[in-house]
Amino acid sequence: MNDTALLKFDLDGIPKVKSGKVREVFDLGDHFLFVATDRISAFDCVMPNGIPRKGEMLTQISHFWFDQLERIVPNHRVHTDNTLPAQLAGHADTLARRSMVVKKAKPLSIECIVRGYLSGSGWKEYKKQGTVCGIQLPAGLRESDELPEPIFTPSTKADTGHDENISFDQAVIIEGASVTEKVRELSLRIYKQARDYARQRGIIIADTKFEFGKFGDELLLIDEVLTPDSSRFWPAAQYKPGSGQPSFDKQIVRDYLETLAWDKTPPAPALPPEIVFKTQAKYLEGYRLLTGRDL
CB count, 10 Å around CB of 161? Predict the structure, then answer.
């Protein structure tokens, strides 16, 4: 079911800068090339087989949102479509629709998370302390409840393992007050616009993660944006607060892995064909609802 060639990329003559859980980054000289593979990770482990076309979906949904958001904040794209430079002509078939040529922006040292609903680590903290990342919330909220207003909850970046939630004041120490206040304002504006749009398309964006970078003196929105890998997407028609929600992401994979006698350390078990198929279908459904077109 899966083309293993789309799980790991090496491009002859093009130096690789970084290999992440999903993305490969190559140095094109003046620019970087971001390539989204079909790899999928869960519990901080990359699965030995992936989800066909997942890399295409991640790249194309980022293009979609960059188009929508350019009036709010500039982004790191060099091209607004799937154009590839001449030096990559020999790799066009492999890279088609799953790669993006971007400016060499320097990423900030914080991740910019916006939460509009009470879920995940925020729900765990709220149950204990009535707060999310130190922000006091009203009493009596249930899991998956919509918050009175979206909140900005930055985190550190971890090369391995989990990022760590930090307070706004801690983010200021890392990035300075001016930059931190700016990315908070941008993150909340972007989230609210995307939330309102997606809700009209039948999707709740419960929370999301943005990354920003500096290119000279310019602050850019970088990396992926508002994808099912960087956000919690819930089907609005099935929304019922008080428990966890079905989603348009890899929750199917997580749920399957929880049924196994696996200790969540590498090597991860291979995903059976039916789990791969169901996960792919869920990703593609989310893309279709958001963009109004098939991938």
Answer: 7
Cα 124 to Cα 261: distance, rounded to the nearest angstrom:
25
Q: How far apart are CA 210 and CA 112, in angstroms?
A: 5
* Residue 119 Cα distances to 139, 218, 286, angstroms: 15, 33, 19
**What is the C-alpha to C-alpha distance for residues 85 and 74, in angstroms, rounded to an integer?**
21
- Tell me 91's DSSP state: G
Alpha carbons 269 and 110: distance in angstroms, whole number: 32
Write the pLDDT tens digit of every residue in 264-293: 999 999 999 999 999 999 999 999 999 999
How many other C-beta atoms lie within 10 A of the C-beta of residue 242?
9
CA 114 to chain centre: 12
The percentage of the chain sitting over the pLDDT mark of 90, rounded to a whole number, equals 81
The CA distance from 158 to 164, in Å, is 8
Q: Are strands 131-132 and 45-46 parallel, antiparallel or unpaired?
A: unpaired
Please give the domain boundaries of the chain with CATH numbers for all domains.
1-104 (3.30.200.20), 107-238 (3.30.470.20)
d(CA 3, CA 38): 9
CB atoms within 10 A of CB 31: 18
